[in-house]
Amino acid sequence: MDPYAFAIVTAFWLGILTSISPCPLATNIAAMSYVAQRVGNPKLVFITGLLYSAGRTLTYTVLGMVLIQSLLSAPTVSNVLQKYMNLAFGPLMILVGMILTEMLVFNLGGCGIGEKLKQRAGEAGSWGALLLGIIFALSFCPTSAALFFGSLLPLSIQHKSIIALPAIYGLATGLPVLSFALLIAIGLGKIAKAYDKVVAFELWARKGTGIIFITVGIYHSLTTIFGVDLSR
Fold it and tell me: pTM score, two decimals?
């Protein structure tokens, strides 16, 4: 597969994994359920989901664009990245993999949503979902921070993708939310079953991805840092 095509697939998968991670998934569903109840019109629920997803996509795209552009446009930083990013990529993969498999656990506090914010979002109706999408995208938990800062940004810098990869990542974080918005529009009773299935999928998907990251990170570190020839 073409390296950039593989990077696109990777960015998309990282976005999906971010969205179904325990903390983002729980807050996404809570926010969507609350706003959907306030909307009152089932036909507007899916539009609410679109706006919520648009808020997340826009936030990750702009944040990624600003960070990547800043890093690549600064001559000194750019030269350092070009020189050492390939060497740092392996250890970063191992670190992210250890966080995904819970070998490393960080407690950064709760990831809930305040009552005042809920009230304001509810009063804003469908457009309140756009605000919630932006806020939740910026509310990083250890897993989402590791995936965004530890995986997506290095990947984007490596391919000098200022907009495309962050946008694909952001778009992917909204797809599961759209699915739940559709379920909310159809009937709240279907949420519990869907939630249980997503939680079960997230567990093996996250740990499976973590194991792959660690394996690739070790291989990349041995070949690029230590110069080990594993082709023999």
Answer: 0.82
